[in-house]
Specification:
The structure holds two protein chains of two kinds. By secondary structure, chain A is mainly β. Chain A has strands at about 5, 10-15, 20, 25, 30-40, 45-50, 60, 70-75, 85-90, 95-100, 100-105. The model of chain A has no long low-confidence stretch (mean pLDDT about 90). In chain B, about 35% of the residues are buried. Helix content of chain B is about 0%, strand content about 45%. Chain B has no helices and ten strands. The radius of gyration of chain B is 13 Å and the shape is globular. The chains are: A mainly beta, B mainly beta.
Chain lengths: ~110, ~120
C-alpha cells in the first residue's frame, strides 16, 4: 500500500542551525513527491516538488529511491520557517496521499 | 483571480444533524479534492472529482459521507447524522487538471466542523 511517513510530530531547531524534516514513502514504481507547508493562519500551499529539483525559500529535497526518502533540508533555519510541513505522494490513482505532518519550531 | 473558497468557515452542529460543506474551486480547474484535517492525524484524503465524476470514493470514512459536483464547478460534501468523531477541518483543493508533478493543488481556507 502507498504510504507516507513523517516520523517527527515536532521538530525544534535554533535559528541559524540546519533543518532536516524526514519523509519516507512506500510506493512501487516511480513516485511523484511533494512538500506542502502551512504557516500560521494561512492556507496549505505547495512548497516544492521533486520533479522540479528546485530550491524554494532555501529548502531543497532530494528523492532517494534506495532509501525511499524525500527529506526536506535547509542549511540555516530562519524564524519565518516555523510552520507545519507535510510530505505528499501522488499515487497511480491520482490521489495525493499526505503524511501526518511535522511542526517545525524555530527557536530564537 | 480569487482562490478556492469554502463555506461556511465554521460550523457547529449537534450530534445526529446533517451538514453540508461547500467548495468553490478556482475557475477553470477541472480537478477538485476533499481532505479532512484532524488533530494529530494529518491530512486524510476523502474524494476527488475529475469534472463531475468521482472515480474513487474509497476515501470516504463511512456511508454517512457523500459528495457531489455539478457543472464542473461547485462541490458539496454532505455528512449525514454527524458524530463527534466527524469534528475536523475539511479542506478543499483544486487543480487545473489532475494534480501531478506539473499541476499544483490550490487549497481553500477550510471549514472547521464541530459536532457537539
Amino acid at each position: 500500500a502507498q504510504r507516507v511517513t513523517q516520523p517527527e510530530k515536532l521538530l525544534s531547531v535554533f535559528k541559524g542551525a540546519p533543518v532536516e524534516l524526514k519523509c519516507n514513502y512506500s510506493y512501487s514504481g516511480s513516485p511523484e513527491l511533494f512538500w506542502y507547508v502551512q504557516y500560521s493562519r494561512q492556507r496549505l500551499q505547495l512548497l516544492l516538488r521533486h520533479i522540479s529539483r528546485e530550491s524554494i525559500k532555501g529548502f531543497t529535497a532530494d528523492l532517494n529511491k534506495g532509501e525511499t526518502s524525500f527529506h526536506l533540508k535547509k542549511p540555516f533555519a530562519q524564524e519565518e520557517d516555523s510552520a507545519m510541513y507535510y510530505c505528499a505522494l501522488r499515487d497511480r490513482d491520482d490521489k495525493i496521499i499526505f503524511g501526518k505532518g511535522t511542526r517545525l519550531h524555530i527557536l530564537p | 483571480g480569487a482562490g478556492v473558497s469554502q463555506s461556511p468557515s465554521n460550523k457547529v452542529t449537534e450530534k445526529g444533524k446533517d451538514v453540508e460543506l461547500r467548495c468553490d474551486p478556482i475557475s477553470g480547474h477541472t480537478a477538485l479534492y476533499w481532505y479532512r484535517q484532524s488533530l494529530g492525524q494529518g491530512l486524510e484524503f476523502l474524494i476527488y472529482f475529475q469534472g463531475n465524476s468521482a472515480p474513487d470514493k474509497s476515501g470516504l470514512p463511512s456511508d454517512r459521507f457523500s459528495a457531489e459536483r455539478t457543472g464542473g464547478s461547485v462541490s458539496t460534501l454532505t455528512i449525514q447524522r454527524t458524530q463527534q468523531e466527524d469534528s475536523a477541518v475539511y479542506l478543499c483543493a483544486s487543480s487545473l487538471v489532475l494534480a501531478d508533478s506539473y499541476n499544483e493543488q490550490f487549497f481553500g481556507p477550510g471549514t472547521r466542523l464541530t459536532v457537539l
